[in-house]
Amino acid sequence: MSDDLFNIKVGDISFRNPIALAPMGGVTDSSFANEKAKDAGLVILGGYNLDEATQKAASEIVARGREEFESEEPLKLIENEINAVNPGPVVAVNVRSTTVEPLVEAAKVAKEAGAILEIDAHCRQKEMTDIGTGQALLADLPKLCDWIGQIKETGVTLSVKVRANVVDDIELVQQLENAGADILHLDAMKEGAGADLKLIKDIRDSTRMFIICNNSVTDIDAAKDMFSRGAEMVSVARGVLENDGLITNLVNMISAQQEDVGWYNAPKHVCRGEGDLRGLAFCCMPVKPCPVHNVIDKLGYNAQEFADTKMEFAKGTMLEYGDSTCFGSLVWCCKISKPCYLRDGVLETLGVSDSEYMNLKKELADHILDHAKKPVNAKK
């Protein structure tokens, strides 16, 4: 398969596909990644403990029977592990510390190696939270955001891994973005309910940050549920321990979908109540009572402004055509997965493939968000 099939980027880093190996303490080292995740777009190694306090906590965790990475030279370990991953996937390192200085040094190592640094604000082991790291960082957002700012001064691409439904998630995400984080790695955990798909959608609607989603990704249907709510990437953890071929299978299936459809994480329709803001690319002309009015209001559009924005984009593209469709232009037509003989007839006449149509719709979604009167919280 082509390494540029997806065109997924964060800054100057490109991922060959949207499937990642998630970090698991004491498990996800370079050997594990090379064996289980050779086809992934991203492998996240770690978590690695950088200072004396987290190393002591890791030893205590190991003493009670859990796995953790232990090292007297964590920065050297990180450098060696990054370099030991076979070519193909992008590499990230998930790290913990009770002070910012070791994180900055780890960022320099990652930057030099062309890797991503990921702050662990996710671990909920008591030994870690008692010393103020892992999930405990979510209770001190000023400190976490200050750390992000200092780490970003190194120029590293920075991810922050967090657990959902611990604090106000929308406020959390917007503060992380404003502080300079590049990637949100979201464990979309909802106690007793698997992945919180509604929360993924709500977070997608609150940020333009790159989102990796995690939790209970054990098959392609679970991955697609997250993609259709706005995840750019999904990460796999425990599922890999139970199914050696899981990542390869997910890569193959999502790649086939991308080749056929062209927009692997296309949103659901807004009128169904499940589509995020990107779904406005598929909405009809707002001429009758419909959920679209409430959605465009979130972006500060009135009906006429929304219509003008879509038609402005369509001008000079294939979406401008379609006199025989419901509203006289493909710009108002729905997702390719929804059967429509009028739309499909125009596409056939124009010689536009399903993937070309969906790629235009993806560009349209970006155009709508970029020109909103109330823009989604974004770094410009």
What descriptors fit this protein?
TIM Barrel; MJ0144_FMN; eight-stranded parallel beta barrel; 2 domains; alpha/beta; 40% helix; 380 residues; 15 helices; Aldolase_TIM; two-stranded antiparallel ribbon; DUS-like_FMN-bd; TIM-barrel protein, putative
Structural summary, described in words:
It comes from Methanolobus profundi. This is TIM-barrel protein, putative. It holds the Pfam family Dus. InterPro entries: Aldolase_TIM (IPR013785), DUS-like_FMN-bd (IPR035587), Methan_mark_9 (IPR017671), MJ0144_FMN (IPR037347). The chain has 380 residues and is an alpha/beta fold. The protein folds into two domains: 8-261, TIM Barrel (Alpha-Beta Barrel), CATH 3.20.20; 270-370, no CATH class. It is built from 15 helices and ten strands. The protein has helices spanning 30-36, 52-63, 74-84, 100-112, 126-129, 141-152, 169-179, 197-204, 220-227, 238-242, 246-261, 292-298, 303-314, 341-350, 354-370, and strands spanning 8-10, 13-15, 19-21, 42-49, 90-96, 116-121, 157-163, 183-187, 210-214, 233-236. The strands form two sheets. Strands 3-4-5-6-7-8-9-10 form an eight-stranded parallel beta barrel, surrounded by seven helices. A two-stranded antiparallel ribbon has the order 1-2. Helix 11 packs across helix 15. The longest helix is centred in the C-terminal third of the chain and has 17 residues, at 354-370. The chain is elongated and about 70 Å long. It starts with 7 loop residues before the first strand and ends in a 10-residue tail after the last helix. 49% of the residues are buried.
